[in-house]
Every structure is written in C-alpha cells, then in structure tokens.
Amino acid sequence: MIEAIGRGENANIRIGHNYSITKDRWKKAWAYYFTLKKWLPIQGRYTGIPILLDFCDPNKAIRSHILDLLGKKTTLKELYVEMFSYSLEFHLLGRHPNDKAKIFATKAAIESLINEVKKNEYDEMILAAVQINPVVPSEGKLSWYELCHHKFFRRCDIILSSIGKNKWCAAFKEKGPEREELRDLLLKYSLVLDTWISSQDVTDELIKNNHEVLGDQTSKKLFQVSLLNAFLKGQREYIM
Length: 240
Fold this sequence. Notes:
Largest sheet: none
Shape: elongated
Strand content: under 5%
Structural class: mainly alpha
Order of helices and strands: HHHHHHHHHHH
C-alpha cells in the first residue's frame, strides 16, 4: 500500500483471506502442522519432518510451546492429534472439490478416527474441535477460524491445551505472542505514517526507507496516508 501511494497508482496486490497471509505466518502454520506430525509415533525410519521444522521454526519456540500443551502421550491424544492434523491440512493445502479423491480419502480417515476415539472416554467438544468436515462444519458446535483470522493460532492453542488436559478449555490463560507481535507491527507502520505526515526527521532505517518510498507530500498522498494510518490505529485498538 505504501509503495502504491508513493507511485500514485493502484495497489498491485490482492487483499483478503489467504491473499493477506505473510510468509512468516505460513511458516508458523506449517510449524504447527509439522510439530504435530513429529509428535505422532513413527516406526523405524527417519523422516524429513525435522528438516522442514528447522526451516519453519528455527529457534524451536513453536515446538516447545506445543509439546508443553500436549503433555504426555496417550492413545486418545494421538487420535485427537491425528484428526487435528487433517484439519490443519485442510487450511494449508487448500480446498478440494467434493467429488474428488482427496475429499473421499479425508472423510474416510476422519470417520475411522472418530470410531476409534469413541472407544475411549472422550470429550465431545474436543472431538468437534479437532475434526474438519470438508463439506459441513462440525455439527455447528464450534465455529472455525481461517488461517488469515487473527485468532487462528489462539484457537489452535485452545484445542491443543484441551487435548493435553483431556477436557475442553473454553479459554486459554496463557497469552500467545501473536497479539503482541501484531500490535508492535501495526505501531511500527503507524509511526512510519505519522512521521511522514508531520515531516519529522528520523534515524530508524525502516521509517526512512518507507519515507523514501512515499516520496514528496502532495494533498492526495496526505489524504491516502492519513486514511491508511487511521485504519492501522483502529486495528491496533481492536486487538488490545
């Protein structure tokens, strides 16, 4: 948006849902998925999952976070996690037509896992939360957030925390870092725009670089930057 305003042209980007997801957010989502896959038991051979995790989660923060939530392995937890992995796949790999092989395979796997879960002392809300019916939401028991939603990872944490305790947790006491990261990012770009509007001298490289991209002030640019800045500040207030 800043580049488009600086050039005086329409933004050459698509906005909304998955078009707005950054590379870091994709990597974080894949780190959740691969951590769950690595947590599940395997027999014999090594896999390439640790290599992928090192790329998506180089400081191992996500791995440590998820392992703490899940706790000690049990057969029921493994069933929940396997089912939740299918749910994450649905968001990471894209939707498939209802009459295609991927949907048939996913539905068959989910049905089989549900049958196994019901042989144990399970929690109905956890069972509803971990499954993703590719055609219909989980019987309306629990709304789901898309990957682009700012609460996506918090919902994942609630589900994984519930699996760890074998009891549905409607809330998650420990605040994840995502909200603070988003607030800091919004503040950073709001400062870029504030200082450009007021023509302040700055030393911060990010701010200076964006000021250069915006170029000289014009009445049109001032209006557009003020509008964008108001939006960023509104978003920051919304997530506080």
